[in-house]
Predict the structure.
Amino acid sequence: MTELTIDTIQINFSAESLWVLNVVLAFVMFGVALEISVSDFRRLLKSPKPVLVGIFSQFLALPAVTYLLVEVIEPTPSIALGMFLVAACPGGNISNFISHLAKGNTALSVSLTAFATLFAVIMTPFNLQLWGSLYDPTAVLLKTISISTQEMVQLVALLLVVPLVLGMLVNHLQPKLALQLGKILKIASLVFFVVLVFIALYNNRVIFIDYIFYVFWIVLLHNLIAFFTGFSLGKLCRLSDENIRSITIETGIQNSGLGLLLIFTFFNGLGGMALLAAFWGIWHLVSGLVLAIYWNKKTFYKEKVV
């Protein structure tokens, strides 16, 4: 097979599986939101710099750097579009746990999760359309696919913002219950999501085997650059080591589950996009944990900077 055929294949994902993925993703966000409170939003007023740097890193710097990477490596159009979509998604659901393990600023990580979730409603569709239109091969691909930006905004809001509000409400009314539920839901929903991805890959194992080496090195490189983007911005803005670690992780751990859902909903499981998002969903767990373990064992001096 040639690399170009990946742009024409579709990943087999049933309507029932798509419905389950919707529910799982909503529960993942609900589980994360159980640990978020109104005080996390107030933190922006007290110490805005780290949060603003984190938001900038996720929604402006990473998509722009992804565009430059695409221009350099020139992947097939569907792979490139998958890269733009992953870069346009907010931080992943396990970023808070990984940030804690890495001895980063967990409070900042939680705040970024909350803000990124709200910004994603507008910024995810916007970034996908903007950067996808700037790269000629993906611009052509976008013209062949009928995408309703309004429907995409509504779906992202339904799957991210509604669970966020409900989770915060439970946290506010029943903090002890929220703490107990949060521990169970975060683990259970993550495991279920990973299992769902593996099932999807297994059902499409012929395609998976054909393109594993082509897609995997792109995911590895893209993920490495995402981490480096967050780390570099944190250093450039003279943030503390704790904050740099959290922003690095928030930038490198993307919500590939949301990406997959958008791909199967609006792009009919377009081969390159789906494979890239699925690989990313597995790989960023590995790379994030490796980075967290490394940082966990590395001490740092707490500097008097924000």
In short: The longest helix spans residues 205-236.
